[in-house]
Structures are given as structure tokens and as C-alpha cells.
Structure to design on (294 residues):
């Protein structure tokens, strides 16, 4: 009898540590975040009154929020698109190499090993108007010096360039793993039928890689939404609000000025946006899988 009870409770005992960790580090913080988003919450206040939807009303009436939402959308779209295109190109090239593939792969992956704060500081020096290496080479080719990080037109592209440099290898390694897992038979059949390299890529590689592509886009999109440390090291949300993303105004308003309730409301909105995007991409993956089965 005891052995039967132990056998039945065994799976629950095995899962218990994971469930406890999930409660401590995921569910409880989310419930606490949701709770304080309806409060005028500050760690220095003895009483944190309930204000209902006031934080959300103030949020949606704020021009700073809508500007941050637009900047975040532009940043996420540009970085993920460029990283996908460049990463896919590098993955295809590396997949076709027969000599020195691992050496080139190791060199390309170096940016991922660097902390975002280090990358941000490095690019901040490189883009300095007076002694930055980018302006040095610009002058060599006859161009004038540019204030990359303080110019209203170049600050956001400079952040995009920095993020693309660091995270394109991440996209590349996922897509390269997918390419290496593709079967050779469809390509051999296409070669016999006289298909060109582009036709094989368009009608064989892309369809077979669709699920991997969606997963790579999903992972990078989620991560791009969270950008903060690079902005802190390079622009601090400026000039004006040209590089103020949602995650930056969470820090600037919620932490810097100790308005945790307002910052929590922004985090909840960000969570809704990211979950909606994840749901959309996962549905695309499921539709593709169903299409393959039929």
C-alpha cells in the first residue's frame, strides 16, 4: 500500500522543485507587478493607495509613452529584419564552406560572448564625434564628421547598427543549425530536374526552414523588446526622446523617479504586446506544420 502511494506521488515529488521555483521567480513576481500597477506604489511610501486604472489612463494619455512605443517598434523591426537577412546569408555561406568553416564560425560568434554594456561602451567610443574610429574612416573617404549619438537623425540608426553587430551571429547559428539538418534528397532531385540554385533555395530551402525561421524571429523579437543596457551606455534615451524605448521609460520613470506603479503599468502593456506577438508566431508555426502533414 505504501509503495503504491509512493508510486502515485512520485511524479509530483519530482516536479515539486520546478513548481516551487516557478512560483517564486515567475508567478509571484507577475502577480506583484500586476498588483502594484493599480497602486500609487513607491518603496519610500508607508502607504501605497489603490488608484485603479489611473496609471494606465496616464500612460495612454502620455505622448512619451506613444513615442516610446513607436521607437520600440521601429527598433525591433529594423534590428530583427537586418539580423535575419544578414544572418541567413552568413548561414548559407558557412553551410557551403568545406574548409575552415569552424574557424569562420568561431570568429563570427565572438560578439555574442561580449556583454551588451561592453558592446555599448565600445560603440560609444567608436562613434565619438572627435576621436571615434568611424569618423576617422569617414574623413579618409572625404566625408565630414558626424555626431552619431547626439544627432536626431543618426542616434536610433546607431543603436540599430550596434544591436545588429552583436546579435546577427545568434540568428546565424540558429539558421545554420537548421540548414545542416535539411535532407539532401530534395536537392538531388531538383538538380536532376534542372533547377537553378535560386529555385532550389526558394522552393526547397525556404519551405523546409520555415519553422526554424519563425523560432529564430520569435527569440530575437522577444529579446529586442528588452533592450536597455545598450541604450544606457550609448544614448541614455536621447537626444531628446529619439532612443527612448519602452524598457527605457520603465527605468526613467519607474525606477529613477521611484514611481513603481506607473513603471509596472508599462511592463504589463509590454507583456501584453510580447505575448500577442508570440501567440501570432506560434500560430504561424502550427499552420505550417498542419500544411506539411496534409
Amino acid at each position: 500500500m505504501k509503495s503504491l502511494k509512493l508510486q502515485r506521488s512520485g511524479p509530483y515529488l519530482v516536479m515539486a522543485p520546478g513548481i516551487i521555483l516557478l512560483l517564486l521567480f515567475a508567478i509571484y513576481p507577475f502577480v506583484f507587478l500586476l498588483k502594484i500597477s493599480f497602486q500609487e506604489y513607491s518603496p519610500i511610501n508607508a502607504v501605497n493607495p489603490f488608484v485603479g486604472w489611473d496609471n494606465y489612463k496616464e500612460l495612454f494619455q502620455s505622448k512619451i509613452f506613444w513615442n516610446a512605443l513607436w521607437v520600440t517598434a521601429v527598433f525591433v523591426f529594423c534590428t530583427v529584419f537586418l539580423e535575419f537577412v544578414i544572418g541567413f546569408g552568413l548561414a548559407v555561406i558557412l553551410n557551403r564552406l568545406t574548409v575552415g568553416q569552424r574557424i569562420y564560425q568561431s570568429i563570427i560568434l565572438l560578439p555574442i560572448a561580449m556583454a551588451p554594456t561592453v558592446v555599448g561602451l565600445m560603440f560609444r567610443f567608436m562613434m565619438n564625434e572627435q576621436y571615434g574610429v568611424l569618423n576617422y574612416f569617414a574623413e579618409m573617404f572625404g566625408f565630414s564628421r558626424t555626431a552619431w549619438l547626439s544627432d536626431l537623425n543618426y542616434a536610433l540608426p546607431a543603436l540599430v547598427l550596434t544591436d545588429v553587430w552583436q546579435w546577427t551571429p545568434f540568428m546565424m547559428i540558429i539558421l545554420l543549425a537548421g540548414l545542416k539538418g535539411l535532407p539532401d534528397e530534395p536537392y538531388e532531385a531538383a538538380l536532376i530536374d534542372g533547377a537553378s540554385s535560386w529555385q532550389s533555395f526558394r522552393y526547397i530551402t525556404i519551405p523546409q526552414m520555415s519553422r526554424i525561421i519563425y523560432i529564430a524571429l520569435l527569440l530575437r523579437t522577444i529579446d529586442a523588446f528588452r533592450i536597455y543596457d545598450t541604450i544606457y551606455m550609448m544614448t541614455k534615451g536621447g537626444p531628446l526622446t529619439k532612443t527612448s524605448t519602452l524598457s527605457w521609460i520603465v527605468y526613467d520613470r519607474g525606477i529613477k523617479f521611484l514611481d513603481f506603479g506607473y513603471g509596472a503599468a508599462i511592463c504589463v502593456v509590454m507583456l501584453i504586446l510580447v505575448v500577442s506577438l508570440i501567440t501570432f508566431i506560434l500560430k504561424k508555426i502550427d499552420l505550417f506544420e498542419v500544411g506539411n502533414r496534409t
Remarks:
- The two ends are 49 Å apart (CA to CA).
